[in-house]
Amino acid sequence: CVLSDVQATCRDATVTQELLKEGFHRDLLVKVELGVTGGCAVAARTRLPPGIYVDPYELASLQQHNLTKAVLIPDVVDVESPEYLATDLLLVLYLEPDPWCSGCFRAALPVHGRYHRPAEEPEEASVVLKSPEVLLCCCDNRLSMECWEPAEVEAPCPGRPLSPCQWYSIRHKPTSKESILQVPVGLRQHSSLVCVLTLLATVLCSSLILAAVCKYGHFS
C-alpha cells in the first residue's frame, strides 16, 4: 500500500457516474476527483437496484486478466432472473489513478439490464442508479477526521488481501446526478406469440441436434 499526501483541509470530491453504450448491455464508468496526489487505495461503493446486475462470471474473467478489480456482494447472482424476482447487489469498484488528471481516479465495469414485466402500452422502464459512495484505504491514519469517517466495507485493500483494512468514507455529498438506464418493456398482448415462437424454435433446434447426433454419432 503506497501512501499519498492527504491534506488536512477538506476537499469536495467530484463524483461522475455514466452508463455508456446502448441497450441492455452497458459499461458503468465511475470517475472521482479527490484533489490528492495519488497513493491511497480509492474505491466506489454503489448499490445496484434489481433492474441492473453484474455478471459474476464476466467479472471473474476480467479480474483474471487484470482488466478490473471489484467485489460483488453477494457473489452469487442469478443472471437469468427478471427484474421483479431479483434483489439489490452491493458493488465495491476499485478505482485506478487517471494518468490524464492529477488527483483523479476512474474505473469501468460491464453491467446488464434485466427484463421487466410486460406492459399494456409501449413504454420503457427506468432503472435509477444512485451516485456511489467514495471510499479510501491508507496504510496509516493520515486522513483528517473532519473530512472522513470509518466505514464498514467487506472488501480488502489492494496489495493487502490477507490483512485487515480500515476504509474511510467521505462525508461530503457526491455532486453527480443519478444515472438512469432506460430498459425496453415488452407488450403483454405479444405474450402468446412469443411463447409459441419460443416453443417452435426450441423444437426445431432440438430436432436438428438429434438428427446430427443420429447421423454422425458413434454408438457402441
Automatic annotation (TrEMBL):
Subcellular location: Endoplasmic reticulum membrane
Domain of life of the organism encoding this protein: Eukaryota
Keywords associated with the record: Endoplasmic reticulum, Glycoprotein, GPI-anchor biosynthesis, Membrane, Transmembrane, Transmembrane helix
UniProt-listed SMART domains: PIG-X
Pfam families xref list: PIG-X
GO biological process: GPI anchor biosynthetic process
Keyword Endoplasmic reticulum tagged: yes
Single GO cellular component term: endoplasmic reticulum membrane
Transmembrane portions of the chain: 191-214
Membrane topology: Single-pass membrane protein
Pathway connected to this protein: Glycolipid biosynthesis; glycosylphosphatidylinositol-anchor biosynthesis
Protein family membership: Belongs to the PIGX family.
Annotated function: Stabilizing subunit of the glycosylphosphatidylinositol-mannosyltransferase I complex which catalyzes the transfer of the first mannose, via an alpha-1,4 bond from a dolichol-phosphate-mannose (Dol-P-Man) to the glucosaminyl acyl phosphatidylinositol (GlcN-(acyl)PI) intermediate to generate alpha-D-Man-(1->4)-alpha-D-GlcN-(1->6)-(1-radyl,2-acyl-sn-glycero-3-phospho)-2-acyl-inositol and participates in the sixth step of the glycosylphosphatidylinositol-anchor biosynthesis. Probably acts by stabilizing the mannosyltransferase PIGM.
Protein name: Phosphatidylinositol-glycan biosynthesis class X protein
